[in-house]
Amino acid sequence: MTNLIDSAGLRNDGRKFNELRPIKLEVGILKNADGSAYIEMGKNKIIAAVYGPKEVHPRHLVRPDRAIVKCRYHMASFSTDTRKNPAPSRRETEISKIIRQSLEPALILEDYPRTAIHIWVEVLQSDGGSRCAGVTAASLALADAGINMRDIVASCAAGKVDGKVVLDLDNIEDMEGETDMPVALMPNIGEVTLFQMDGIVSPAEFKEAFELALSGCQDLYKLQKQALFTKYFGTDKPQVQEGE
Amino acid sequence: MSEIKRKYVIPGELIAQGSYGIRGNMLKIGDKIYATRIGMAEVGTDTIRLISLNGSYMPRLDDIVVGKVINFNAFGWQVDIKSWFPAFLPAANVMGRDYSSARDSLASQLTLGDQLLAAIAGYDRTRDPMLSISGPGLGKIAEGNTVKVSPSKVPRIIGKKGAMINAIESGSGCRLSIGQNGIIVMVGSAESVSKATSAINLIESEAHSPGLTQKVHDILSLGDKSE
Questions:
Q1: Which domains, from first to last, does chain B contain?
Q2: Within 13 Å of residue B185, how many CA atoms lie on the same side as its CB?
């Protein structure tokens, strides 16, 4: 097995333990969707699209008091190094549900009774942590669609690799490392909407990893905010103006 | 109005803290007021307004909307109003209370594809919107061109007490009917329609920028000079 963390404390791609992969975010990339976003997080390349609110089909799923959310996470056949069968796998079904559940608390579904909101997350190229990148992009797409939201959702993973707690695991670290812990956060409200973990960590390490993941989400939120400002206000900085 | 403070916001962002009256697109938790949409927040002395920059049309009672007939049955017409549900225009509203499906023909009044200006007569969370065309200026649109804008920008096109729409009408010389659902009907000569369209497109693309009124005045008067 190769060493995932070298003697200088750098990881296989040269990052420090608390460093995110390079991230690129873009909002409003699809014309046909009501809202859309694109994320590059390391080698991940993911498109998220939102359609709705619209009429619910099949009709029996209608909730008279709120909107329902449907989410589909899908990996393109060409997104991995060997061809992936395009049929939805067990893993994709799980991640679809996880993404839906991490976004639902941020949406004010009561404002849209008897409607459905569709979220599509399409992975074009995959690396580790695609569910987190998917959540991050999908919440931007929802904001772009003009759906009432309590907060934006930012998501990234922390974990344990070579006995050290690290932020934002890539594919190699995810496979070879000890622990992976994806977390999603509503940064302004301060609520966690997604938390999963596999592997074994001590209580102290757990705390350290969790705090690290939360700080990573806060950093991601700044980039999300910047992406939305760039699209809508043509500036990457929040502005306050005195009125006419 | 010098104490109005404007701020660009995204969902979840804290707009202000204190006892403000809020109108739509905001969330109050304790005394903190958060935005729920992307838009421009206007913080006044005791109220906050959030003009959102995107989103689809949510029907509200008494709104005037522009719709298109997409279907009809014995009891009335189904009208597409660019919301998530089609609206229903009952035949009795058009034909009078003694409407009988056996005697009267719906097609004599409105047929598929007809555009109409109507008011939302009934809507709540449990029912599809109901339309009415009994009112001044309402009914079938006989002529004119339409242009679509984002429904959230309709307030900017109307402007403060109708200032913007008056400017466009007098500047271009064509008459506008604005549906709250973001469809605008323009009636006038081809030249005036194209002038009004460019003004409306300018508002749509730069709804959030300061000095918008001046830019619209410029585009309208510039059009005059180049004639």
A1: 5-52 (2.40.50.100), 64-140 (2.40.50.140), 145-225 (3.30.1370.10)
A2: 21
